[in-house]
Input
Amino acid sequence: MTIRDILTIPDPLLRERCVPVAAVDDAVRALMDDMLETMYDAPGIGLAASQIGVMKRVVVIDTSSRKTEDGEGAEIEPRDPLFLVNPEITWLSEDISVYQEGCLSIPEYFEDVERPAEIKVRFLDRNGKQDEMHCAGLLATVVQHEVDHLNGVLFIDHISKLKRDRVWKKFAKAKKRGEAV
Ligand code: GNR
Ligand code: NI
Output
């Protein structure tokens, strides 16, 4: 497994649509392992393949990263990764929830985003088997955030144009100067 570089705005790849995966083979599983390691290292709770420059419809998610204690009082970090290939949102609730979102491709910028509170997502799992899952809470938000990435959409597209233009320009300017933001 390899930790890959995460692209940040204004990288044009983050605005492109990813293509469906034809078959979940060992190469796709190796990609997902790299994505998972990159996500845990960042750290983040979700990652879309386009964020490491691979334009395929592949997502990894793990929202379980709160620390708990084992029997001896040592801290352990539970891992409960989800692998979503060719995810399709098949249902969105009318109920809306608001989460403060962040994105590894827009470092250190956080803003409230309104999205449907619950969704259903159909996808191929790590073994290429079709599955469907009902999501609520933070998971529903993260799945929508990641499916957006596969379509070249970023969470700042869901906030006001004034705020979006401000953050985009800040990152574009920093890149021009060769600074890390
Ligand atoms: O790590 C992440 N946290 C997060 C918090 C609220 C809503 C969405 C996310 S996803 C983000 C990682 C990321 O950029 N995934 O694309
Ligand atoms: Ni993101």
